[in-house]
Protein backbone atom coordinates (compact mmCIF):
# COMPACT_ATOMS: atom_id res chain seq x y z
CA UNK A 1 0.00 0.00 0.00
CA UNK A 2 1.07 3.59 -0.44
CA UNK A 3 1.10 4.40 3.26
CA UNK A 4 3.16 1.42 4.38
CA UNK A 5 6.51 2.32 5.95
CA UNK A 6 9.65 1.39 4.06
CA UNK A 7 11.42 -1.55 5.60
CA UNK A 8 14.95 -2.44 4.59
CA UNK A 9 15.98 -6.07 4.45
CA UNK A 10 18.09 -7.17 7.40
CA UNK A 11 21.81 -6.71 6.87
CA UNK A 12 21.43 -4.59 3.76
CA UNK A 13 21.11 -0.88 3.35
CA UNK A 14 22.42 2.12 1.50
CA UNK A 15 24.15 1.25 -1.77
CA UNK A 16 24.05 -2.43 -0.87
CA UNK A 17 20.27 -2.51 -1.33
CA UNK A 18 20.63 -2.25 -5.10
CA UNK A 19 22.82 -5.18 -5.53
CA UNK A 20 23.82 -8.03 -7.62
CA UNK A 21 26.25 -10.64 -6.41
CA UNK A 22 28.94 -7.98 -5.97
CA UNK A 23 26.84 -6.25 -3.31
CA UNK A 24 26.03 -9.36 -1.34
CA UNK A 25 22.61 -9.96 -2.88
CA UNK A 26 21.41 -12.57 -5.30
CA UNK A 27 22.02 -12.06 -8.99
CA UNK A 28 19.29 -9.78 -10.38
CA UNK A 29 17.93 -8.90 -6.91
CA UNK A 30 16.99 -5.23 -6.84
CA UNK A 31 16.32 -5.09 -3.12
CA UNK A 32 13.98 -2.42 -1.82
CA UNK A 33 13.35 0.56 -4.08
CA UNK A 34 13.79 3.98 -2.50
CA UNK A 35 10.70 6.09 -1.98
CA UNK A 36 7.51 4.07 -1.78
CA UNK A 37 8.91 0.73 -0.71
CA UNK A 38 8.50 -1.09 -4.00
CA UNK A 39 10.19 -4.38 -4.72
CA UNK A 40 11.68 -3.60 -8.12
CA UNK A 41 9.25 -6.01 -9.80
CA UNK A 42 6.43 -4.47 -11.83
CA UNK A 43 4.10 -7.41 -11.19
CA UNK A 44 4.00 -6.68 -7.46
CA UNK A 45 2.88 -3.04 -7.74
CA UNK A 46 -0.47 -2.29 -6.20
CA UNK A 47 -3.14 -0.37 -8.09
CA UNK A 48 -2.39 2.73 -6.04
CA UNK A 49 1.34 2.52 -6.76
CA UNK A 50 0.69 2.01 -10.47
CA UNK A 51 -1.69 4.98 -10.50
CA UNK A 52 0.85 7.17 -8.69
CA UNK A 53 3.59 6.10 -11.11
CA UNK A 54 1.48 6.83 -14.19
CA UNK A 55 0.18 10.18 -12.93
CA UNK A 56 3.65 11.25 -11.81
CA UNK A 57 5.21 10.30 -15.14
CA UNK A 58 2.51 12.08 -17.14
CA UNK A 59 2.79 15.12 -14.88
CA UNK A 60 6.54 15.24 -15.40
CA UNK A 61 6.14 15.14 -19.18
CA UNK A 62 3.50 17.89 -19.03
CA UNK A 63 5.76 20.04 -16.82
CA UNK A 64 8.67 19.66 -19.24
CA UNK A 65 6.41 20.56 -22.16
CA UNK A 66 5.13 23.64 -20.34
CA UNK A 67 8.65 24.86 -19.55
CA UNK A 68 9.75 24.35 -23.17
CA UNK A 69 6.63 26.08 -24.51
CA UNK A 70 7.09 29.13 -22.26
CA UNK A 71 10.81 29.52 -22.92
CA UNK A 72 10.45 29.03 -26.67
CA UNK A 73 7.71 31.68 -26.78
CA UNK A 74 9.91 34.12 -24.86
CA UNK A 75 12.75 33.62 -27.33
CA UNK A 76 10.43 34.42 -30.23
CA UNK A 77 10.01 30.91 -31.61
CA UNK A 78 6.65 30.40 -33.25
CA UNK A 79 5.47 26.99 -34.39
CA UNK A 80 3.87 27.42 -37.79
CA UNK A 81 2.33 24.49 -39.62
CA UNK A 82 2.58 24.62 -43.40
CA UNK A 83 0.20 22.66 -45.62
CA UNK A 84 2.61 23.00 -48.56
CA UNK A 85 5.67 20.73 -48.09
CA UNK A 86 7.63 22.21 -51.04
CA UNK A 87 10.86 23.95 -50.23
CA UNK A 88 11.60 22.23 -46.93
CA UNK A 89 13.71 19.36 -48.29
CA UNK A 90 11.16 16.55 -48.17
CA UNK A 91 13.34 14.27 -50.32
CA UNK A 92 16.40 14.63 -48.11
CA UNK A 93 14.28 14.17 -44.99
CA UNK A 94 12.66 11.04 -46.45
CA UNK A 95 16.05 9.61 -47.44
CA UNK A 96 17.42 10.22 -43.96
CA UNK A 97 14.30 8.73 -42.37
CA UNK A 98 14.64 5.64 -44.57
CA UNK A 99 18.20 5.04 -43.41
CA UNK A 100 17.19 5.64 -39.80
CA UNK A 101 14.34 3.12 -40.01
CA UNK A 102 16.62 0.58 -41.71
CA UNK A 103 19.22 1.03 -38.96
CA UNK A 104 16.61 0.58 -36.21
CA UNK A 105 15.25 -2.54 -37.93
CA UNK A 106 18.76 -4.00 -38.20
CA UNK A 107 19.35 -3.31 -34.49
CA UNK A 108 16.11 -5.14 -33.65
CA UNK A 109 17.15 -8.15 -35.73
CA UNK A 110 20.54 -8.25 -33.96
CA UNK A 111 18.78 -8.03 -30.58
CA UNK A 112 16.39 -10.87 -31.41
CA UNK A 113 19.16 -13.13 -32.73
CA UNK A 114 21.47 -12.48 -29.78
CA UNK A 115 18.63 -12.99 -27.27
CA UNK A 116 17.69 -16.32 -28.83
CA UNK A 117 21.31 -17.46 -28.92
CA UNK A 118 21.81 -16.47 -25.29
CA UNK A 119 18.64 -18.25 -24.15
CA UNK A 120 19.64 -21.45 -25.94
CA UNK A 121 23.16 -21.42 -24.50
CA UNK A 122 22.06 -22.70 -21.08
CA UNK A 123 23.68 -21.99 -17.73
CA UNK A 124 27.16 -20.51 -17.64
CA UNK A 125 29.97 -21.81 -15.51
UniProtKB/TrEMBL annotation:
<keyword id="KW-0812">Transmembrane</keyword>
<keyword id="KW-0573">Peptidoglycan synthesis</keyword>
<dbReference type="Pfam" id="PF03023">
    <property type="entry name" value="MurJ"/>
</dbReference>
<keyword id="KW-1003">Cell membrane</keyword>
<protein>
    <submittedName>
        <fullName>Uncharacterized protein</fullName>
    </submittedName>
</protein>
<keyword id="KW-0472">Membrane</keyword>
<feature type="region of interest" description="Disordered">
    <location>
        <begin position="1"/>
        <end position="42"/>
    </location>
</feature>
<dbReference type="InterPro" id="IPR004268">
    <property type="entry name" value="MurJ"/>
</dbReference>
<keyword id="KW-1133">Transmembrane helix</keyword>
<keyword id="KW-0133">Cell shape</keyword>
<feature type="transmembrane region" description="Helical">
    <location>
        <begin position="50"/>
        <end position="71"/>
    </location>
</feature>
<feature type="transmembrane region" description="Helical">
    <location>
        <begin position="92"/>
        <end position="113"/>
    </location>
</feature>
<feature type="compositionally biased region" description="Gly residues">
    <location>
        <begin position="11"/>
        <end position="40"/>
    </location>
</feature>
